Amino acid sequence: MGKIVLTADRPTGKLHLGHLVGSLENRIKLQEDKNYSKIFIMLADGQALTDNSKNPEIIRDNIIQVLIDYLSVGLDPDIVTFCIQSQLPALSELNFYYLNLVTTARLERNPTVKTEIEIKKFGKEGLPVGFYTYPISQAADITAFHADVVPVGDDQRPMIEQTREIVQKFNSIYGEVLTMPDGLYPKNAKSSRLVGIDGGTKMSKTVGNCIYISEDEKSLKKKVMSMYTDKDHININDPGKIENNVVFTYLDVFCEDRHFSEYFKDYKNLDEMKEHYKRGGLGDVACKNFLFNILNEKISKYRVSRKKWESKIGDIYDIVLNGTKVAIETTERTISEVKSAMNIDFFTDKTKIVKNWEQCLSV
3, 14, 38, 205: which is the annotated catalytic residue? Predict the structure, then answer.
């Protein structure tokens, strides 16, 4: 039997290029790989509520948007099972059991949680417990599907490590019930944590530094032309820095040699272009126009596909409804296995319960 894949996104807005190169492209490859028998993609609306509890309409309104993005980039509903997290009761129950296996000290050491707390700035009301413990919730999501592989960006590596710790601890106490998952990370390090157009942090809807997969041409052009480059590269003839230059970071991720013959015939490859920029004589506007052409080519096909799916909202509803039904069956089987291993499946076998009590009374 092939491996099981689970991955998820928080439906708090349309998906962006960070999602595309950080996870979506890996998912598309996996659906073509015969080594994987089941692929589940979950809309983590419950997790999104950890910092959007006062604005739940943000999540509800964006579930369809994210599904359209999934379908637009080529995820196939005949291969992939799409489901909604909040509609799977087994996940909350697993989370309840796992809370007893993790200490607060361990949660506080999770670097991904630390970083996201700094970005979100929760303010006077303080940190919601649900956000603080969401690594445990993610472990419940992953293990409920018996996922072998979880495609994520490199910034999610600590979350996979914490899930593996929970699996190891549960199995050591209750027996080999849970599947030990592995993360699947982008090979290009810059893809795994694609920086936003401001050059400050990774691309984030919260920060507002995104280029969306569905970006129209005019908006894309505006965002690319606003990108941070090198503050000391004032005149074209000034030597320029490549390091921490957002335009070249994106070129490292998206540029191919063929793009030069199509959009920038002055150079054969990116190394030549970089050398010219570093010694001076190559302007930022020319670099940005080149990047714009590359990105516009990449996402133009997604725009076309999105328009098609936008006219089929009823079909999309049915896709996620049917997928969620499959996910409910899958995760309920897991919770039954877990409760049996923990010996708290009280109402599955009356004979077993009576016998156990008789043995206790006879002691």
Answer: 205
Please, what are the domains in the chain? 3-194+313-359 (3.40.50.620), 217-309 (1.10.240.10)
Side by side, the strands of the sheet bearing 80-84 are 80-84, 36-43, 3-9, 149-151, 182-184
Please compute the mean of the pLDDT values over residues 132-144 and round it to a whole number.
93
Bridge pairing between strands 182-184 and 36-43: unpaired
Residues 8-29 pLDDT 10s? 999 988 999 999 988 898 899 9
Q: How many CA atoms lie within 13 A of 339 on its CB side?
A: 16
And the tokens for 335? 């919770």
Residue 81 has pLDDT above 70, yes or no: yes
Average pLDDT over residues 143-166: 92
The residues near 6 (Cβ < 8 Å, ≥ 6 apart) are 39, 40, 41, 42, 141, 142, 145, 147, 149, 150, 181
Helix 313-341 and helix 157-174: axis angle, to 10°? 40
Count CB-CB contacts under 10 A for residue 38.
19
Is 205 among the catalytic positions? yes
Told to judge if 120 belongs to the known catalytic residues of this protein, a careful annotator would answer yes
Q: Give the predicted TM-score (pTM) of the model.
A: 0.87
Single-letter amino acid, residue 252: D
Sole residue written with tokens 């700094």: 118
The answer to whether 159 and 112 are in contact (CB under 8 A) is yes
pLDDT 10s digits, 245-276:
999 999 999 999 999 999 999 999 999 999 99
**Catalytic pick among 3, 38, 202, 274:** 202
Using one digit for the tens of pLDDT, what is the confidence trace for 37-63? 999 999 999 888 877 778 888 898 899
Enumerate the β-bridge partners of residue 183: 150
Amino acid letter, 160: I
Q: Please state, in angstroms and rounded to a whole number, the distance separating the CA atoms of residues 335 and 321.
A: 21
Cα-based distances in Å from 152 to 41, 67, 118: 12, 18, 21
Q: Which residue has the tokens 């649900």?
A: 130
Between CA 13 and CA 63 the distance in angstroms is 8
